[in-house]
Each structure stands twice: as C-alpha cells, then as structure tokens.
Design goal:
The complex is a heterodimer of chains A (195) and B (577). Chain A is α/β, with parallel strands linked by helices and 195 residues long. In chain A, 40% of the residues lie in helices and 23% in strands. Chain A has a 6-stranded mixed beta sheet with strand order 2-3-1-4-5-6, with helices on both faces. In chain B, helix 18 links the parallel strand 16 and strand 17. The chains are: A alpha/beta (195), B alpha/beta (577). The interface between A and B is large, with 64 and 59 residues.
Chain lengths: 195, 577
C-alpha cells in the first residue's frame, strides 16, 4: 500500500507553504487521500516552521511525529538538524545548504553548529544536499527556491515526473511558471548528478 | 468535484453551499481564514467587526432578520463574545446561526489553552466538532438545518490542526434560502426578567430534546471493529486514535460534543471490556461518562496540557516509541522575531533604552518581549495594556506614571483599547498610552480594520482617525502626539515630554507594516568593515539581517529592507545606505 509522509521544514518566509501545496495537488491528482498540515500566525514571523504532507489510500492524522517521515525537505541546515528525529531510520533528507542565523546566534547567546550535513550523514542517514538558492537565482528568482528543492527531491516523493510538473503548473501563478519550471529542472538534474 | 482545502476554507465553502447570507468576525489565529475565504463568495456579505462581541451580535441580528448567519473567532475571542452568546441561547434564531470558535491546544499562536466546550455547556448550546475538512463542510451545512430545527444558535468547535490542515472535500452547488419572515415576539426576544424566565424553561427543554436527538443524529458515529477496546473520542483526537489503533479498536466518534448522547454511550460501552476516552485539553467527555456511572480511562493516562499527537498516544497508551536519529549537540532555538524593517523595532529600542515599565498587549508587538529588545513587562489580553496600566499607576502613584507606558496596536485599540482610555480620562488617570499604528492587523496575516480605510471585501471606506477618537475620549489635543517610530531620537523626546506631563496622553507611532505590498523596500544597507569596530551597538535592535562575522557587523542584503534603523545606532558611520 502506497503511503508517504513528507515534511517540509524551514524558516518563516522561505516559501514552505507553496511547496506543500504543490505536493498536496500532486497527491490529489493521483486520486490519493491526502492531508497537509500547516502553521500560521505567530510562528511564521521568522520562526522555525514545519509543514506535513501525508498521502496514501487513507490518511488519519494530519501530522508527522518522530521516526515517521519518509522524506524531509529542509530549506535550511539548522532546521534539518532540528527535525532530523522525525525521519524514519531508512528515510531520506533533502537539504538546501543555506544557513540563516536564529536570534540566539545573532545575539551571541548560542553558536550555529558546524558541519551539520556531515554530522547527519554520520548518523547513517541518506542525504542529498545542494545550494537550491543558487539554482533559484540561476532560474531567475530567489523565490523559486521551494520549486528547486522539489526538483531535487523529485525521485523520492513517490510521484512520476509528469504528475509533479503538472502540480507545479497548477500551484504557481502563470507569470512565474517559466522560472519555476527552470528551477525544477535545475534541481532535478542536480539530484541525478549526486546520486 | 473534489478539491483539497484547509479546514477553514471548507467551513467557508459550507457557508456558501448552505446559503449563508452574512459573516461578521474578528481575526484570530487559527480562525482567520474562514472569513477571508467566505468574503471571496459574492453571495455572502462578509465583514471584519472591531471585536468578537460586536461580530456575534451582528450575526444574531442577521439571524433575527431571518437570514442564515455566521461569525468566527479564536478561543479567547469567545471570552469577549460571551455576553451575547449566553443571551443568544435564550433568544434562539430566525435564520440558522453558527458560531465558530477555534481552540489552539499547544498554543501555536495564543496566550492560553482553553477548552471551548465549557462554553457550550455553560450557555446550554449545542456544539459540533469536525475532525477534518470534509466534516467542516458537511457539519456546517447540516448545522444550519439543525439550528433552524431546534431554534438555537449552534457552536462549531474547531482546532488548529483541523483549521490549518488541508484535506479532500467534495464540492456542491449553493442552495439559496428564502429569508424566514420576521414576526415581532417580545417574549422571545426582549430578555428582561419576566420574559427570560420563560425562555430559560424553553432552553432547558430544548437541550433535553437535542440530547435525545444526539443518540441518532448524523454527527455521531460508531465504528465497530469488534475486539475488547472501545475508544470514545472527538475532533482531532479521533485522527490520532485512528493512526495508533486503526482497526484494532472500536470507536464512538462524537461530532455533537454537547449535549452528549447518553443512550449511544451506554450501548457502546456495553460492548467492550475496556473504554478509553481520548480528548485534548479538559476531561469533558470523561466527566460525563462518570456521571453515567461508567468506568473509563482518560486523564489518568493522558495529559490535560498541550496538544495530542499519535506519538503521545502510542507512548502513553501502548508504551511504544518509534526509533529515530538525533544529533548530540545543542540545536539553538529559532523563536519568531519582528520582521526586517518592522516599524515596531524602533519604539521598543527606545522603551528599553528609557528603562520604562511597559504594559503590553496582543499583536506582533508582543514579540517586543523577546531578547534583545526585551521591552515588555506584561501581556494579558486584548486591550488590557491600557486598563491594567491605569490600575498600576493608581496604586503606585503619580511618579510611577512618569516611568511607565502602555503599548497597543491600531486594531487592538479599536477592539477594546478605547474603553480603557475612556476609563483613564474619566477617572483622572495620568497614564501615557502608545498606539503603534502600522495600518493593518498584522499578526493574524494582514486583515483590514476600521483604521485602515478598506473593508474585508476590499472596498475603500473612510478611515477612523485615531487622533479624533483619542480627542473624543477626553485626551487634550496638545497631548495626542504623532511620531515615526523609525525616528528614534524624536520619538524618545516626545515620549519624555508626555511622560513628564501630569495628565493623560497618547503617542501614536505611525509607520505602515513593512510587509504591506504598497510599502516598497529601500536598497539594502551595507557595512564598511574599515570603520566597523565590532561594538555591537547595531545588534541591540534584534534585526534578523545583522550578524557578526569575524568580529564585524554584516548585513544580509537579501533580507534587509533598508529601514535604516541600524545606521542611527552606529557611532562610527560604518553603516551605509
């Protein structure tokens, strides 16, 4: 029975909600039951944000707990480290190599941990990492970082390429479609290189 | 047609399909998107009211007129609207009426955890509780028929995980409803003692009839999988229970959570050896079972605090924990922060520098409590900054008023700050009130309010002038001051003058929210590393764009909106823009 638990984690303002909408639309197009859980309000203001996308024959809980995610799409390295416990032991983590300092680091009360990606890999976790922000810039806008990451994760989300591309088309505004498709392709071809 | 929708959007869709004519709400996470989505349907008149009490009264009036009506609020909003809620229960409806209240277990964006079911019990009103978007839609539609059948307002209890989760819904067409003709009936609608005595009897009888109906209503359902374990649950807890127990347990899933179905519960528990009640927050179902002399497990195993998850249920009820990996080192927390370019940053810098006692309020500016700004002393509830400061100053005397301020946003001032200000001027108070006017309701995601010049439907309207309101409430014109909070020197000087003045005063800090579309960002500022000595003066404003790299300040050019506040703090001219 097909069942996928996907988490999208990042920092408020990075565009994680659009990424979850794309995956929700892809699940619906394939006729799956799907639940997407978001966080709105105060925590959006530059805080740590997480979105859950779950699809399958039937989905009960809209949220994902520790040890349950098949895929975690991390928009930022520290958030990858924070949400690592939510990954299944055989899950995969897709990490954007961007670092955004949280306030305790900005004020000097804490330090941004070094070598996060290497430390996650050392735990035996499968990781694909890339500079999705650079890909988005290359495609034409920094705002396409979410779609570049989905391209990077394309082979691990359980959707065929056509379904995912269609979902991007139905989820982004027409005038931004071209840059987003370019970002998607850049992400997807990079993933092929690292595998 | 199938579509994936937020629970809140599905509630709005239910309003549309059920022929609802009027929506009046005040924004509050996690309820806000219902009214925003409803406003997109041309057939529904939708508005932002200045507060929840007004919204509920507007919806009651619309129902009396014979149209189907609706209002939405967050859990603490129902505290504000409790007065018309209780009396609305006595008066009943004309057109069907639904009051949505969204609880926030886990306090994702709230100041307390509060179980709204107690309101349904206390007001003697029926309460529906959906578990997902499909139920949000169907409960709203059936809820209107229910409301009209029993002549009662119906409460729809939502929850962060229902309101803010998307799931699949099936859409249908709108069914227009004729206005139910109004007939004058003071005995039903004029709630003075003689009439209310009669209505209380009606309310009690109605509740009994609904309790009977609850045994067979479409909102409650039994999923009988045999076995020894029976679970009684409702709302989001049902989803978590299904995730953990699947078909290894049987379920009584309550959709009508007040009044409860005694016969249905007795019949259900008779079939299983062990009964567990799984409910977030308070032990409402459990207490009812006890009243029926039914032995259940519940809060002896599960907590009263915080939201539930399948992980919590698996651990507490089955002793199961899933394996997972974690890094050993400390992961710094990432609390929410005031956005780059936020107009509130300047005033909090000034308040902290002046060392004032700051009576805070509810909004984005509550974030001024966090380090490094750390300027707030208290945050209570909507509007309390002003009224609580008055009490503080009355007890500590005139000197304390020279060292303390209240701080409140434009929307919160319209919500319930005005009455507090009237109290100050009426009762010879001398407090100083700061209104941070960012021209929008910010924290809930940019909703219009009476001061912004636009309605929920986006129509332009005359703005209510904060200066004129303050003057009308008795503040002398010379002591209603307006400053730009980014001009910190001027703002500090104005504050000093008004604190010294031995009478009540208002300082309006006016600058629009940096996230508003019409507010154009200026080019990013840069740091001249030759001039920067690494003194960290610019770090005192808690701007997420500035950090120290190699002992010198650096500004993130992607995030910086060019507000220039940091430049004003640099004594060495190292920040340029």
């Amino acid at each position: 029975m097909t069942k996928k638990n996907i988490m999208i984690v990042g920092v408020g303002g990075q565009g994680t909600l659009l990424a979850s909408r794309i995956l929700g639309n892809a699940s619906l197009a394939l006729g799956y039951d799907v639940k997407v859980s978001e966080v709105h309000g105060m925590s959006q203001r530059g805080g740590s944000v997480v979105t859950y996308v779950k699809y399958g024959e039937s989905v009960a809980s809209p949220i994902i707990c520790r040890g349950e995610a098949d895929v975690i799409l991390a928009f930022e390295e520290l958030e990858a480290a924070r949400w690592l416990p939510y990954l299944k032991p055989d899950g995969i983590m897709i990490i954007n190599t961007q670092q955004i300092n949280p306030m305790p680091v900005v004020t000097g009360a804490a330090e941004y941990p070094a070598d996060i990606i290497e430390k996650i890999k050392a735990k035996g976790v499968r990781v694909i990492s890339a500079d999705a922000l650079a890909m988005a810039k290359e495609a034409g806008t920094e705002k396409a970082v979410n779609v570049a990451l989905i391209g990077l994760a394309a082979d691990y989300l359980g959707f065929d390429r056509g379904t995912l591309v269609d979902a991007v088309k139905t989820s982004v505004a027409p005038k931004f479609l071209e840059v987003n498709m370019k970002a998607f392709e850049l992400g997807a071809s990079h993933a092929k290189d690292v595998e | 047609m199938k579509k994936i929708m937020l629970g809140n959007e599905a509630v709005a869709r239910g309003l549309y399909e059920a022929g609802c004519r009027l929506v009046s709400s005040y924004p509050g996470t996690p309820s806000t998107e219902i009214s925003e989505a409803a406003a997109k349907y041309d057939e529904i008149y939708a508005e932002w009211a200045p507060n929840e009490k007004v919204a509920l009264e507007v919806a009651l009036g619309a129902s009396m007129a014979g149209g189907r009506s609706f209002c939405a609020m967050k859990h603490v909003g129902l505290n504000v609207a409790a007065d018309p809620l209780f009396i609305g229960a006595y008066i009943g409806v004309g057109g069907g009426m639904i009051i949505a209240v969204a609880d926030d277990p886990g306090m994702h964006s709230s100041q307390n955890e509060q179980d709204s079911r107690h309101y349904a019990i206390a007001a003697k009103l029926p309460m529906l509780e959906p578990s997902d978007s499909a139920e949000c839609l169907s409960f709203v539609k059936a809820g209107y028929d229910f409301s009209e059948k029993f002549d009662t307002p119906v409460i729809l209890r939502l929850n962060t995980r229902v309101s803010h989760s998307q799931s699949v819904v099936e859409l249908a067409e709108r069914e227009e409803r004729e206005i139910i003709p109004y007939e004058k009936s003071p005995a039903k609608r004029v709630m003075m003692p003689a009439n209310a005595k009669g209505r209380h009897v009606v309310v009690e009888k109605r509740l009994e009839e609904i309790a009977e109906y609850a045994n067979e209503c479409p909102f409650n359902r039994v999923i009988d999988n045999g076995g020894e374990l029976g679970i009684i649950t409702a709302g989001p807890s049902f989803n978590y229970a299904m995730e953990v127990f699947g078909d290894k347990a049987s379920y009584l899933k309550l959709g009508l959570v007040n009044p409860m179905p005694d016969k249905l519960i007795r019949d259900f528990v008779a079939k299983y050896q062990r009964i567990i009640v799984i409910e977030e927050l308070d032990d409402v179902i459990e207490t009812h079972c006890r009243k029926l002399d039914i032995t259940v497990d519940g809060k002896n195993l599960l907590p009263l605090c915080d939201e539930f998850t399948q992980e919590l249920l698996a651990e507490k009820l089955l002793g199961e924990v899933k394996p997972y990996a974690a890094l050993e080192e400390n992961i710094p927390v990432r609390p929410p922060v005031l956005c780059p370019g936020c107009p509130h940053r300047g005033i909090f810098y000034v308040l902290k520098k002046m060392g004032l006692y700051v009576s805070g309020d509810i909004g984005c500016y509550t974030l001024g409590a966090l380090p490094p700004l750390g300027a707030l002393d208290t945050t209570l509830c909507m509007g309390a900054s002003i009224s609580a400061l008055h009490g503080y100053n009355k007890v500590l005397g005139e000197d304390s008023a020279k060292k303390s301020v209240a701080i409140i946003g434009d929307s919160t001032f319209m919500h319930s700050g005005m009455t507090g200000l009237a109290n100050i001027t009426y009762n010879k108070g001398i407090s100083t009130v700061i209104i941070v006017d960012n021209s929008i309701t910010g924290m809930t995601g940019h909703q219009q309010n009476p001061c912004t010049g636009f309605t929920l439907k986006g129509e332009p309207v005359p703005q209510i002038s904060l200066e004129a309101v303050c003057k009308a409430l008795g503040i002398e014109e010379a002591h209603i001051r307006v400053t730009d909070p980014n001009e910190i020197t001027e703002t500090e000087a104005v504050l000093k003058e008004e604190l010294a003045y031995e009478g009540p005063s208002v300082v309006i800090c006016r600058r629009p929210c940096a996230l508003l579309k019409y507010v154009k960002a200026e080019p990013a500022f840069t740091v001249d590393t030759e001039k920067c000595i690494g003194c960290k003066a610019c770090m005192k404003i808690g701007c997420p764009c500035i950090s120290i790299v190699d002992k010198k300040a650096t500004i993130n050019a992607t995030l910086c909106t060019g507000c220039g506040l940091c430049k004003k703090l640099c004594k060495f001219g190292a920040i340029q823009g």
